[in-house]
Amino acid sequence: MAAPYHKTAGQSHSFFPVFITSQFLPPGSESATTSPAYSPSVGQEPWPQAHVTSSNVGLPVMGSIPIPSPRISHSSTSGSFLLGVTKEEQEAQRRNPLVDLMESESLYAEQLGLIVRRAAGAWSRKDFPPAKLDSMFRSVEAVYRANRGFGQKLREIGPNPSSPNVLGDLLMRWIDDLEPAYHRYAANFLSGFDSYPPVVGNTLLPGILDKISSSSRPTPPLTEWTLDALFILPYTRLRYYRKLYTRLLRSTKEGKSDHKLLVVANERLEKLVREVEARLELDVGDHEEENPTCSSAGNVKTEERDKERLSRSSSASDGSIESHGNRIEGHSSSGSVVTSITQSPQRLPAIQSPVGASSAPLFAITSPLSDLELRIDPEKTIDLFTMKLKKCKLQMNPPLLPFSRTLRSSHDATLYFTPSATGQQVVHKRAHIFILSDLFIIAEWMEAADKASKMQQIAREQPERVGRGGPMPEMWLSYPPLAGKHLMVAEGHQANILTVMIMRKETFAIHTESEIAKDQIMRDLIECIDFASSGRLLQLAGSKKRFELFLTGVISQSIT
Q1: Disordered: where is this region (predicted)?
Q2: Chosen CATH of 326-558 out of 2.30.29.30, 3.10.310.40, 1.10.1740.10, 1.20.58.60
Q3: HSE (CB half, 13 Å, CA atoms) of 410?
Q4: In which element (H, E) is residue 502 found?
Q5: What b-and-e string marks burial along 184-208, b requiring 16 or more CB atoms within 10 Å of the CB?
Q6: pLDDT (tens digit, 9 = 90+) per residue, 171-223?
């Protein structure tokens, strides 16, 4: 979810209304039309080649998409070339620019959503897209999130803003907010996906693209959407913003604070455009890794590594990992909940996972939930609020539990935590989190030496377990399990980070392997919070006392 646009203190920017009335609308044309110039279209503005000069302008081709030859003007005030004015652009100049921005932004967000929610659906967690394609999907998703927030604020302001300052502030803040997502897009951009073997071999994609083309008609000369045509949309939108902010710059007087801000804004947009243009000729087929994983058949080795890890993890409920706009939810908390850790803050924060390049959570459908009682050892469990050792015993489905507890998902992650008790940051480099129906569990993968030592201990103290060949300890329980009722979840400052607050007192920053993994963790935590906070559990428990017991200690019964 894109970060909210809060009004900031300081100087306001009131240039935009002046720009609308005196610069963009021709005399006698004050009313706005309802037909915007949809900038995210292929036909609206010609696409330049990277490093175009006046002597080499031809008709380049990117994948299967013809790119019209650019018409170059050297009169740009920002130091970059401008394209010749087309008929569509002349019509756009006669429109109210704010209405045009709002309506084209809405269409653009809709088209990005088609990529994130539908085109990416041609692959699944059993058939992951190759790394380069996966990077493009994630980059476009980051852009989608940023633009969705921007579009929402534009709709709140409306076509006739009551205060020019609000619109000016929003437009200047937008440059700050778009830059990270679009820089990521520029850094990962590649073309040639339409002829890329893993794409050509995907049997689901053609039907999905046909449905996309039917529901959102491409702008001529395109007759149907392809992956390359969809992936180029953020680039065409960047050029739209560059035009918009160039005109804003021309409408302000040199020397004023607004003029200086717009100069910087135009420079940043120009840099982003150039970053993409430098990669327009890069073909995905020429930029594979030394040992690429290109198709479901090529994923065999990765899946074998997955199965090796999955054999050690608990079962997870089936569910979609489709990215979506997550709510930031919070619930009031009461009662006492505890948790803890053993990892040294000096250790590097990199996520250690043997599961290839994919960011999907670890799913296993063969192990019962009760196996977690054997796989997770509580010996080093620490109280979250005192940071002292706390003895506890895991019991996943105790006899008195009025419902069947299940596992929503589990994930490798890196956790950062600065406890109030010590004020010193703790880093869980090898963390593995479990999200159950109503509980959140934080564990840590054992080092090889610890695992071997534990097995020897069990062989001495519980030889019957060794004889049965059941699961052995492989993780430390970092903290006693956390009841969903006492949690609040929010997105972090980066695409792959979220934060979890416990009883409004302690906060974990969870760094995931990918934005997709973060999305699923947030979704499952929100569902966990909703379930644990609902009246349904109280009704099942039969009494408030038993309800509190289930939430705070039934699977983590203290022995002290």
Answers
A1: 30-50, 283-345
A2: 2.30.29.30
A3: 26
A4: strand 497-502
A5: bbbebbbbbbbebebbeebeebeeb
A6: 888 998 899 999 999 999 999 999 999 999 999 999 999 999 988 888 777 78
